[in-house]
Design a protein that fits this description.
By secondary structure, this protein is mainly alpha-helical. Helix content is 75%, strand content 0%. The chain has helices spanning 2-30, 35-50, 54-61, 65-91, 94-101, 104-115, 122-130, 132-140, 147-170, 176-194, 198-201, 215-239, 245-252, 255-267, 275-294, 303-309.
Length: 316
């Protein structure tokens, strides 16, 4: 009976985590900052909190310089993912950005065998290709001025596939909290270095990093950092002790759905999108849900990826 109770509690915890991750797109829409300072402040806050935790420093002392460098490189990809994800929200809307991230399934099928040193799967590639009709419908179901947001969102999904696959390769070599601190710390430094070039690379993303956000924006950034990053990270660590990777995968696949529903409730985004968009969303998410149903659940999960990706196609 206690095992069942622990399993049921874990299910509630992981679904609560996914709901919190669903709010990341919503908060990104509500924060008035451009994508670059938004992501920079979010990462800085999380790194600042992790730096106060002795466990993170203990894990760092046990880690080799080569491994720190490897995780730092992955952190740059994480920063670019978040930058393009919130950029897609600013260029389109939260529903479009959340839908595009589901494309990570297709990209992962292509890049993970090479990066994670595992066998190529024709079945996964077929599922990845199955989302393409959905993508076409999504593109046809949004206003013309949203389409650049779809391109940026697809790029964001590609970065998810890259850093998720690399994290999987290195998953057993570091404490999850330490890994998160290293990755987000290096990502913060990367965005700082990128900031002077951003007006020439992508002016729509650029903004002053060192200008303190207004009270409303800062409050939302703190909510985004603490309640939608660190809190679900900690809860997911607890929940994953009492559930399979398969069960977690099914739960985290709901994240785009939560984001789209919340965007419709809070912003009325359904009025900006045609029925074609939602048909495309159904096709994309059907492929994402079928993926874990066809595979054999693995016992190993990657909570440090949960912490930085908001669970975008991150468990096998």
């Amino acid at each position: 009976m206690s095992t069942l109770s622990a399993a049921a509690k874990a299910q509630l915890q992981i679904h609560f985590c996914v709901l919190l991750w669903g709010f990341t797109a919503i908060l990104g829409k509500m924060i008035s900052l451009p994508a670059l300072p938004l992501v920079w402040w979010r990462m800085l806050v999380v790194v600042g909190v992790i730096a106060l935790l002795p466990r993170a420093w203990r894990g760092l002392r046990k880690m080799s310089p080569k491994l720190v460098l490897a995780y730092s490189g992955i952190g740059v990809l994480v920063a670019l993912h978040w930058l393009t994800f919130y950029g897609a929200i600013k260029l389109a809307n939260a529903s479009v950005a959340a839908t595009c991230i589901a494309l990570a399934t297709a990209f992962t099928a292509l890049v993970e065998p090479k990066l994670a040193h595992r066998a190529f799967s024709r079945r996964e590639l077929a599922l990845g290709l199955a989302v393409l009709p959905g993508v076409a419908l999504v593109v046809g179901g949004v206003p013309d001025d949203f389409r650049i947001g779809i391109i940026v969102g697809a790029i964001s999904a590609f970065f998810v596939a890259l850093f998720g696959s690399l994290n999987k390769r290195l998953v057993e070599h570091g404490d999850p909290l330490t890994v998160t601190g290293i990755e987000l710390g290096s990502g913060t430094l990367a965005l700082t270095a990128l900031s002077p070039l951003m007006p020439w690379i992508f002016p729509a993303f650029s903004g002053d990093l060192f200008s303190i956000p207004g009270g409303r924006d800062m409050a939302l950034i703190l909510i985004l950092s603490i309640f939608c990053t660190l809190l679900p990270f900690a809860l997911s660590l607890v929940a994953l002790r009492h559930m399979s990777a398969f069960g977690a995968q099914l739960a985290v696949n709901l994240e785009p759905i939560y984001a789209i529903v919340l965007a419709a409730i809070l912003f009325g985004e359904q009025h900006e999108l045609t029925p074609l968009f939602y048909v495309g969303v159904v096709i994309i998410l059907a492929a994402v849900f079928i993926h874990p149903l066809l595979g054999t659940p693995k016992q190993q999960v990657q909570p440090e990826i949960l912490a930085v990706a908001e669970a975008k196609n991150i468990l096998e």
